[in-house]
Amino acid sequence: MINYLKLLVYSCVFCCIVYFLLGGGVSLIIYLTKGYFFYSLEQVKRTVFFGSVSGIAITLAAIVFRSIDKYKNLKTPPSDSE
Q1: Which helix (H) or strand (E) element contains residue 50?
Q2: pLDDT digits (tens, 9 = 90+) for 1-44
Q3: Which residues lie closer than 8 Å to 23 by C-beta, 6 or more apart?
Q4: Rounded CA gap, 57 and 45, in Å?
Q5: What gap in Å lies between CA 46 and CA 52, rounded to an integer?
Q6: What is the pTM of this model?
Q7: Rounded to whole angstroms, what are the CA distances from 45 to 2, 23, 52, 68?
């Protein structure tokens, strides 16, 4: 369970950082075209929200895939190798 909590924190932080970098790239393009740097508070809130949702989705996918693998391993009998 601790590993899944670590994965949750890591994936949320990673997704937030990626979204901040993407928003910074868009702000840089706005700066180069219009002459002012625009990174609003709403953009920061959106970044944190979507980063958290993405991190939770990644963790849930890992849990579901791990559960499917465990179920498949219990269901299939070992093969007879000769």
Answers
A1: helix 41-75
A2: 889 999 999 999 999 999 999 999 989 998 999 988 888 899 99
A3: 39, 43, 47
A4: 18
A5: 10
A6: 0.77
A7: 28, 12, 11, 35
